[in-house]
Amino acid sequence: MYVRNEEEFGEAIREGKDGIELEGDLASKVKKLYKINLTLWSFCLVCLAVAIIALMQVPITGGTTGIVSLIVGTPAAAILGTEAAVTAVMIGVAGGGVGVLIKLRQAYRIETRKNGRIIVYLKN
Question: Which residues, given as ranges, of the chain have pLDDT below 50?
Fold first, then answer.
């Protein structure tokens, strides 16, 4: 399954799809979510959860700009980088909550392909 954006990716993870293909900026940002060690990921997850909950409670009409302003001062933005943190929050919102990020890290593995593509597979 090929996804083009964070919303499609979040929905695919929530639904438990296997073989999710990503490319470009989205692929590089998702790779960052995997590269971070577990201790730092756990710390970032708390910050991301607060942002996800806030966005799910009060829809922001500013789109990505509103998300960036909500996240920019958090430790997650400092650790992951603002763009990767925003992507993580957008995936979480699209997937229905922070649980989709936990599922992504625990139940999926990534395989890097040529030209900046990655495929995210369910672990056996």
Answer: none
